[in-house]
Amino acid sequence: MRIAIIGGGVSGLSLAYYLQQQGIETAQELEVTLFERKATLGGNAETVWVDLGLRRRPDRPDEPYRRWADLGVNDVNLATYHRLKAILTEIGELERMKPLQNTESYFSRDGRIAMTNDADLTRGVSDPAHELSRADGGQLAPLARVVHRSALDLIEAQRVTPRYTVGDFFDGCVAEPAEMLAAAAERLGIDIDWQDPELPARLERIRHTLYYPRISAMYFADDRGPAGMPLQAPFEYYRIQEGGRPPTGATSSMAPSTGWRPWPTTSPTPTAMARGYASCATSRWRPRSAGAG
To answer: What confidence tens digit (pLDDT) does each residue in 37-72 have?
Structure first.
């Protein structure tokens, strides 16, 4: 059987891979040709170098400033996506992945840095004076963990409906912090002074500085703002995509050092121009009885 696959992106490569597996498992002779117009495979899952101009520093000569950028998704929560982890393991890509380095910056409306979190960035460049762990004398970060855990508990216990919004949740936290958050604080082993007169203001800062900007940037955010969104929307995302970790911490993700190439080591590489495409790869799988694997 002769099969042509147009496009060497993730879909085309996956199809070629599973056809290969089918040919091996069914002892069926297959001839698969993959056509790709670029000189590289992977489609949008590609890592490129970006020229940012010249880097200027005092008492040093100017030098080119280049950074790499992933054009596709560059991290994944392997604790959640079990099938993806299995296929990465099967094709030998999992061992090439590296722990995710993560940093976050939060800005005020006038453009000033409000705070940063470089806890998971081994080569951080942020000003330590803005570090989240130091905000409000070190009281903001643990309170944010409690808020996040409390929201996740509501979602996981199915105690809220889509009518219960992000705004409703934070309004409740500000109005009755002990009632809303005490169980989560006890579960996390975090001591909170529920009589602290600054607690409502601290919760408002968590709402408007940490959560609302982050939720507003989500691809499914409501144009009317985060307050009116169902609490389930962003926190189900946190629970599934980020393994339940708060937005002030890194996910249990792994990121490749180069563009993801889900192509078995036994598969062919681009060899020639063909029909207007920059590369063309052909491979044949015959039954083992014919002397080929």
So the answer is: 988 888 887 778 888 788 787 888 888 888 777 777
- Block residue for tokens 């070629």: 16
Residue 204 CB contacts under 8 Å (≥ 6 apart), including other chains? 174
Neighbours of 162 (CB within 10 A): 10
SS3 186: helix
User: DSSP of 96-125, one letter per residue?
Assistant: GEEEPPEEEEEE-TTS-EEEEEEEE-TT--
What pTM was estimated for this model as a whole? 0.58
Cα distance from N-terminal residue to C-terminal residue, the chain: 16
β pairing state of 63-70 and 2-6: unpaired
Q: What counts of helices (H) and strands (E) characterise the chain?
A: 8, 10
- Give the type of residue at 75: D
Say how far apart CA 262 and CA 189 lie, in whole Å.
42
For 279, the enclosing helix (H) or strand (E) is strand 279-285
**Domain boundaries, given as residue ranges, for the chain:** 1-45+261-293, 101-250
| Residue 140 main-chain phi, psi, to 5 deg | -75, -45
Q: In the prediction, which pLDDT does 287 show?
A: 44
pLDDT in tens, 231-242: 999 998 888 766
Token pair 């069914």 is at which residue? 26
Kind of pairing between the strands at 47-55 and 2-6? unpaired
DSSP 131: B
